[in-house]
Design the sequence.
DNA sequence: GCCTGGATTGTCT
DNA sequence: GACAATCCAGGCA
């Protein structure tokens, strides 16, 4: 275990399908809690399932910004989802953070998730945002510096044998295997 | 354990 | 005006 280091902009400035599996095992730290990422999905602008497929809009502006920033969107009338922008400016790429495991701030997250079992605190994209109090006010936050949220490498290597499969909840783009799961997780996640 | 249906609102066509 | 990168409760096995 080396000392935790924030990931720099260089780490994020590559294709979302390369970045996504490397985010497994990394730590997303907020002001009062931190989470180890165990499930991700990649989205690109040439991908019909991506919010950026039809070009820039006010909502998806962060995905077209530089890599290493937080893209938060609101969906199904009641849920937020958190993404990390990837690639260079104007690339329109991002990695959706689907699930995580608690690192610090367990009590805070339990309170925000209102009595859910620990294994159900962070095992879905909407739940992860609820537990970490992520909403649209954090859209565009810089994850590489002194913002409210930071992505760290705490010395945990990405898994050598990540589970790869199709993305979840889509009407289109289900044929591309752009979802990665860390096999070391104890969460009950779809494994294929 | 697995499956089904309802909730609810911002966003784009 | 329709849809959406979801979650949860409830029913059944």
Sequence:
């Amino acid at each position: 275990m080396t000392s935790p280091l924030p990931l720099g902009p260089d780490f994020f400035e590559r294709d979302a399908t390369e970045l996504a599996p490397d985010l497994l095992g990394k730590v997303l730290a907020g002001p009062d809690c931190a989470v180890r990422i165990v499930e991700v999905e990649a989205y690109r602008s040439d991908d019909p399932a991506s919010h950026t497929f039809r070009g820039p809009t006010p909502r998806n502006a962060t995905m077209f910004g530089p890599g290493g920033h937080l893209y938060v969107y609101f969906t199904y009338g009641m849920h937020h989802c958190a993404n990390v922008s990837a690639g260079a400016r104007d690339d329109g790429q991002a990695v959706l953070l689907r699930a995580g495991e608690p690192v610090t701030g367990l009590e805070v997250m339990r309170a925000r998730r209102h009595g859910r079992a620990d294994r159900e605190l962070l095992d879905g994209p909407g739940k992860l945002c609820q537990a970490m109090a992520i909403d649209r006010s954090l859209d565009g936050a810089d994850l590489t510096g002194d913002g409210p949220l930071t992505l760290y490498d705490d010395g945990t290597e990405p898994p050598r044998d990540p589970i790869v499969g199709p993305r979840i909840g889509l009407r289109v783009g289900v044929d591309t295997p752009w979802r990665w799961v860390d096999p070391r997780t104890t969460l009950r996640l779809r494994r294929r």
Summary: Residues 54, 57-59, 73-78, 136 of chain A lie near DNA strand B (CB under 10 Å from a C1'). Chain A is about 15% helix and 25% strand. The first strand of chain A starts at residue 5 and ends at 6. The CA atoms of residues 125 and 157 of chain A lie 23 Å apart.
